[in-house]
Design brief:
Length: 271
């Protein structure tokens, strides 16, 4: 997902479950045309598509697919399956700014990039997985503790760590907490925020800047407040955060999270 955000994709909405059926919420770009769009689950790109229709109209095709629209039928089933497992399907979009030309001819950005994105990202729902590839969604749905258990464990770790010194002599400030890297967090690059700290974070779908100790550049994730039943934030850092977890710690290891603003956090190693 971070690769898409870095080249200009924006989070424009999400799918949710209402009375057992998928429901669409679009917050921006509803009426824009010539778009590339993506469906993302827990930071993993599941589907890449393009549309010359207004985005709202294209998404309606997934809500109410016709009997011969096999792609719409398949993706509606995929979306519903993810939502029924308590996860959220984010919708990202990249608009055509009209600046790309070859001589006098306009190059359609969506048409030009779609195939290359699919080839490089191999989204599961596009049906182009490489041999041996395993989706994070399948792994994490089996590995992650239920939200209540994960929050309880994290709260207990935070309680035990209050007053513990770091960086030599300082006690942990109120805007910091210790995160235990449960299997799903460690393998997928996201984490749930405990109830005690959830007010420090921004709103659902807001982008969040993430910096990590020993990494020269920050990167962008997003805040998901619909994945957990109590609407505590799930911070989606994706592959870059996962790699940092693997570099500095281990499964069930501890890292320090410093909340520097509602939309920015910093990770530090924890001895």
């Amino acid at each position: 997902m971070n690769r898409l955000l870095q080249i200009g994709f924006q989070v424009v909405g999400h799918w949710m479950l209402s009375d057992g059926e998928p429901k669409l919420q679009l917050n921006r770009m509803q009426d824009e045309t010539n778009l590339l769009y993506a469906f993302v689950v827990d930071g993993e790109v599941k589907y890449i598509g393009k549309t010359t229709q207004p985005l709202r109209s294209r998404m309606y095709g997934y809500l109410k697919p016709g009997p011969t629209q096999s792609t719409n039928i398949k993706n509606r089933a995929n979306i519903k399956s993810v939502l029924e497992r308590g996860r959220i399907v984010q919708i990202l979009a990249l608009s055509d700014n009209g600046l790309h030309h070859y001589g006098d001819f306009h190059i359609n950005l969506a048409a030009g990039l779609e195939d290359d994105f699919i080839a490089k990202l191999n989204p599961e729902w596009n049906g182009r997985l490489l041999d041996g590839y395993k989706s994070v969604e399948r792994n994490s749905s089996q590995a992650e503790e239920p939200d209540g258990i994960a929050t309880a464990v994290q709260s207990e770790v935070q309680h035990q760590m209050r007053g513990v010194s770091f960086s030599g002599s300082e006690s942990i400030p109120e805007n910091c907490f210790i995160l235990k890297l449960h299997k799903a967090y460690f393998n997928s690059g996201f984490f749930n925020v405990g109830v005690s700290y959830q007010k420090l974070f921004g709103d659902d779908l807001e982008e969040i800047r993430i910096s990590c100790e020993d990494l020269p550049h920050e990167f962008t994730g997003y805040i998901n407040r619909t994945a957990n039943n109590n609407r505590t934030p799930r911070i989606m850092g994706g592959a870059l955060l996962k790699r940092w977890f693997h570099k500095v710690s281990h499964l069930d290891g501890l890292v320090l999270v410093e909340v520097t603003s509602p939309t920015s956090i910093r990770f530090k190693k924890y001895a």
